Amino acid sequence: MSSTSVPSRRRRVGGARRAEVLDVVVDVLSERGYEHTRFTDVAKVAGVAVSTLQFYFGSRDDMLVEALHHSTEREVARLEQAGNQEPTPWPRLVALVDGGLAPLPIGTWRMLMEFWHAAVHDPELRAHSVSLQERYRRPFAEAIRDGVEQGEFHVADDVEDVVTALVALLDGLVIPRVLDHEYFDADRLRVVVLRQLRALLGVADP
Amino acid sequence: MSSTSVPSRRRRVGGARRAEVLDVVVDVLSERGYEHTRFTDVAKVAGVAVSTLQFYFGSRDDMLVEALHHSTEREVARLEQAGNQEPTPWPRLVALVDGGLAPLPIGTWRMLMEFWHAAVHDPELRAHSVSLQERYRRPFAEAIRDGVEQGEFHVADDVEDVVTALVALLDGLVIPRVLDHEYFDADRLRVVVLRQLRALLGVADP
Amino acid sequence: MSSTSVPSRRRRVGGARRAEVLDVVVDVLSERGYEHTRFTDVAKVAGVAVSTLQFYFGSRDDMLVEALHHSTEREVARLEQAGNQEPTPWPRLVALVDGGLAPLPIGTWRMLMEFWHAAVHDPELRAHSVSLQERYRRPFAEAIRDGVEQGEFHVADDVEDVVTALVALLDGLVIPRVLDHEYFDADRLRVVVLRQLRALLGVADP
Amino acid sequence: MSSTSVPSRRRRVGGARRAEVLDVVVDVLSERGYEHTRFTDVAKVAGVAVSTLQFYFGSRDDMLVEALHHSTEREVARLEQAGNQEPTPWPRLVALVDGGLAPLPIGTWRMLMEFWHAAVHDPELRAHSVSLQERYRRPFAEAIRDGVEQGEFHVADDVEDVVTALVALLDGLVIPRVLDHEYFDADRLRVVVLRQLRALLGVADP
DNA sequence: TATGAATGAGCCTTCATTCAT
DNA sequence: GATGAATGAAGGCTCATTCAT
């Protein structure tokens, strides 16, 4: 649905390079973290002057927030995409789980964490996190509801709560991954998560 | 178990107030976040001079890291404590889950998030996160292993992976809680989590 | 009399809008003050691009100085005009005083103050202030000299000093007016100033 | 009266040097003007670090405003002082006029102009200018009222208006003085001003 | 003629840190 | 043990200016 990105306040300045530079911002941000991303850092990597960044984005905060929006937007879109490939409920759910466990560049997951953290301390980002989470949950919820309606799934609890738990599980797995904890193994976890999910949905083991 | 706190070389100066002030640091830190906690902020709340803080803790980073250690230490201890109250595996697991879902002051959970985030960008903290996570996982792992040995639980996957998933689920639930997302409801989630857990462990529904 | 305005080397580029824009510069300048008038401010009000202003006027200083010249020029012309309407000395003086106390838009008076202030710190403007002041004083001096020659006025001091005092009085009244001090009342002041003037010139009260 | 200077908001920091430095600020300010007085300029002259100035005064604006207050305060006090030396009305008025025409360091007069100019664009300073002007006018008004009561002066207009005119005259003379206009001669002007004043007050020529 | 893109210089401000008391 | 004075380093921001179109 409406992937029509950010209705940002500025964004009527800058030439073609602006878009490229924004991607650089995302990279640097995921690398250094919100609070440690200086104009200088981005400027150096992007090969533009600091004042050019300000010309493009306004303030440092505006720049970082736009990068945060941009990248989270992209992730949600990626997930929605993943879900749309499969027509039937269970394979669709599996695809969604795989989307949440995919071996993407580590920066992707760090960015997520940056977003959560930044949102804790910034009301505007927190508000965005609400709408973002809604969109993030929707594909899961729809797949489960479809499965229930088609008699394929049998859920004892409220679907929303199941989604909350499922998403929390995927989000929670981001943490050991980003912190590079040894015990984390995406492939083995995938098995566990899916087994757990089958149990919750009353789907027979394969 | 060795609660050998703070393995650091940090000094041990300052009078009795030092301990009180450290608690203030924790509060301010959970409130403002690592990067936004200035000496001034703490000084104001604690009612001491900035130079006093430096006298107590050394540098700003030393102060914050000590606060991070202090509070995470406390949380792990709390969990170990919770597990020790119950003698049999399943009630012990339930107690541990309840420990992870407890309606503690929101600052407790924010602190956890601060820790994760800070650890991403600080090697020393990352190292600490490894040992901390080990201790955090242990009570869960032990309870499950006990249950398996006693024939009470039947686990299809590696126990460590089950623990990873379980802890990830609890950690992942910290996020909507801290971000104050509406759909989050600890009580209902508790039911879902426990049902999920029973399914994984082959424990009959109550 | 030579109204040889703007003795500057400043360029003469730009279309018909240039003149209109110059008036905008005057307005903005009187509103915001010399030091706080940015290209951006003028551009916004004039509805043109910043680079257009630079195209018209050159540098920021050039623009502002030209505006200062333009507006002071206009004021002096207004005064000369006022003096020329009346043929006999005393009515002419009265007209000049009225010109100095006229209820013009407040911007007019603020501009005067801007000019004084700017001239203090800019040698070129200071030089201009000298020639400007000369022309400003002249109508007063001529009227008084005429009155003396015609035996209508009797002056004990040097006429130039009388003019200095008279102009200082009018200029000094600009200050409470611009600062919007309550005690300032142009009508009542007019009576006082004229009485004072009659006393100095030995003119009988009406 | 109540020369109990500024009830400033900060001012509880800084050692003994603070007072000395404040005088430096006044000097630099009168020399360079409000808008062109940088921290750097003051720091260089005062021989302290920029951050020391900020430690003393807070922001650049706070520093300059305090300097403005400080110096205008001093001037008003000087005038009140001058008036208090003479017991009888006319000599007292003469002393006040002399105070307004005194050959003080040019910085004193430039400062006055800075103050007027700054007050035009800063509401807080404008408010201060009101109270300051009140105190500035008072000695003049009291001397005149005393003279009237003692039958020494005979005033046709409202005393306040006479004061307005007199102060305006003195203020207006600051302009050519600061702009260093050639025709300005304090001694000769003094004669004119006093003659004018005598005429207004019905005092016989000496 | 008129303008948007891009940039560099200059300055304020924040903040941790050092030092003397 | 505890604190105030003083400072240097670093970064964000404003703004005029240059350049290509």
UniProtKB/TrEMBL annotation, chains A, B, C, D:
Q: Say which domain of life the source belongs to.
A: Bacteria
For this chain, one GO molecular function annotation is:
DNA-binding transcription factor activity
Keyword flag Transcription regulation: yes
Q: From the UniProt record, list the coiled-coil ranges.
A: none
The record's section on Gene3D superfamilies has:
Homeodomain-like (1.10.10.60), Tetracycline Repressor, domain 2 (1.10.357.10)
> SUPFAM superfamilies annotated for this entry?
Homeodomain-like, Tetracyclin repressor-like, C-terminal domain
Keyword terms of this UniProt record: DNA-binding, Repressor, Transcription, Transcription regulation
Q: Which residues bind DNA?
A: 38-57
**Which InterPro entries does the UniProt entry name for this protein?**
BetI_C, Homeodomain-like_sf, HTH-type_TetR-like_transc_reg, HTH_TetR, Tet_transcr_reg_TetR-rel_C_sf
Keyword check for Cell wall biogenesis/degradation, yes or no. Answer: no
Residue limits of the HTH tetR-type domain? Answer: 15-75
What this protein is called in its record is AcrR family transcriptional regulator
